[in-house]
Amino acid sequence: MGILNVTPDSFSDGGAYADPGRAVAAAQGMAAEGAAIVDVGGESTRPGAAPLPSDLETARVAPVLEALSRDAAGLPASIDTRSAAVAQVALDAGAVLVNDVSAGADPGMFPLVADRGAGICLMHMQGEPATMQDDPRYGDVVSEVAAFLEARMRAAVEMGVAEHAIILDPGIGFGKTAEHNVALMRGLGTIVALGRPVLVGVSRKGIIGDITGREVGDRLAGSIGAALAAVEAGAAVLRVHDVRETVDALKAFTEMRGSGA
Ligand code: HH2
After folding, report:
1. Annotated catalytic sites, by residue?
2. What is the average pLDDT across 55-73?
3. CA 71–ligand 1 middle distance (angstroms)
4. pTM of the model
């Protein structure tokens, strides 16, 4: 999953793709490099980010999604949003998956996804982006995150979402300390055991900076190391900024390891 932020303020690529033409070119590039899906986001959820009114978010993402469905040569798009109103416009504009970092907190989200037969990624977050990194606490982070995801999956299915349309995500960096993030990566098997494909988004994140001591623009190697660890632990989808490098690393990893991962 290639990341395409149409935000002025995302933590690593803010402002790069606000223009639909540039966004389409970037998505075409990602498709050529081996991305299976492009994740379009209009609201940054980086630590400290304030929520965005949904009309502003829609105004950012709709022209890009429309341009992608016209011109991006069949690369499916997902919409990274917590808002059912934004998701509705995005699905109308051709998106096939809703990437919801709040796991369906908007009461309109599950009915919409069910009605449209779309896919949905349910992610765990403790708190809200504005304050989630202030003092995150867990008893046992792995079992708490797994229990949350299982409960949200059950809630989605009860509202008509097809179980086979659900992806689960532990939400690396969303209300978690460095220790919590590492515990979740090491304990990913507990989330994989819930029986749905698991998405991991660790690309360029703070945890990579914590481990390597590198600034955000210099975290490619660390991000790839973490991505491979996620695949080894059973992740099925990697949400990344650097598609070409990640795909190459995966090709070499799977070929040399001989697992067909
Ligand atoms: N991380 C971000 C955004 N959306 N979605 C999922 N499913 N999993 C993630 O880990 C995840 C996500 C990070 O936030 P943002 O500030 O939007 O930055 P970027 O999109 O550049 O990663």
Report:
1. 205, 239
2. 89
3. 24
4. 0.95
